[in-house]
Design goal:
9 strands; elongated
Length: about 280
């Protein structure tokens, strides 16, 4: 599959998914229509469609102003030569090839970084995220780890120093409202709420005032992570954008659901509520 983001009123959202098994001519025609008519930004992931940069740009370069390329995969590995993260050997120069050639062609390249979706760190007891029953999700990390925020910041700084015009942070959320109950989160929320350290999800959900604290506390962690990454990136380049991906669906509760399920407040994490970068 290929995923597209639509830029609309300064928000990015998923708009369409296409199969790479489509007839090639139909696929190219539909992709060009999406790029030209809908002004979408294509997100390229070599694990889905491993097209060389020169081939892609020769086909679509005249039709696009911007493109997004995955730089850090959900596996936790990078698609470029990183000094801070493990590289995916098969695609070790994928992001760099698109960023460097895009820069030469005058095309804005955005780096897609999977934030808390990280299978590598998800295996680490220090960073794993668990529910109140102790069930761990090894494909994600706990969003409440400042050491990991710093790690994401270092990766983000690497890509913006490698011709990326901005960073799209995806996987930027809690898994659902039942997370996180790791030892670190238990201790911190226990101090805030007055609950004993062995509290469970029902203790939170069944008490309206505690539930409100839970929602606001998790929201603060996602927002603080975005602000931390943003400030670190702007310390090395002030002309780039940090663009969070927000999970939003009007049919299942809209912003309220986004906040309660994933800890995301669209306004709090929107770059429009940060000091906008100054062009050099």
């Amino acid at each position: 599959m290929l995923t597209f983001y639509l830029r609309e009123k300064q928000f990015y959202m998923y708009v369409v998914v296409l199969s790479n098994k489509l007839n090639q001519k139909v696929f190219i025609m539909d992709l060009r229509r999406l790029i030209i008519e809908r002004k979408v930004i294509v997100v390229l992931d070599p694990a889905v469609l491993n097209t060389p940069a020169d081939d892609f740009y020769s086909r679509f370069g005249s039709s696009i102003e911007s493109i997004a390329v995955v730089a850090k995969a959900p596996s936790g590995r990078t698609y470029y030569n990183s000094e801070n993260a493990r590289q995916e050997k098969e695609y070790s120069d994928y992001f760099e090839s698109y960023a460097n050639l895009g820069d030469q062609l005058g095309i804005n390249v955005y780096a897609v970084i999977n934030a808390f979706s990280d299978e590598w760190f998800g295996q680490d007891p220090m960073y794993k995220t668990v529910d109140s029953e102790g069930n761990a999700i090894h494909t994600h990390v706990c969003p409440n780890r400042k050491e990991y925020w710093h790690y994401l910041s270092e990766i983000s700084k690497e890509v913006v120093m490698n011709h990326a015009q901005g960073v799209i942070l995806t996987g930027l959320s809690y898994i659902n409202s039942h997370y996180c109950f790791c030892e670190h989160c238990r201790k911190e929320f226990s101090e805030i709420s007055g609950l004993p350290l062995d509290f469970n999800f029902d203790d939170v959900k069944n008490n309206p005032s505690i539930w409100e604290q839970w929602v606001n506390w998790r929201k603060s962690k996602i927002s603080e992570a975005v602000n931390h990454i943003t400030n670190e990136v702007w310390s090395v380049r002030k002309d780039v954008y940090i663009i969070p991906t927000v999970y939003y669906d009007m049919e299942v509760g809209g912003i309220k659901s986004t906040l309660e399920l994933f800890g995301q407040d669209p306004l709090a994490v929107s770059y429009t509520h940060l000091t906008l970068p100054t062009k050099a």
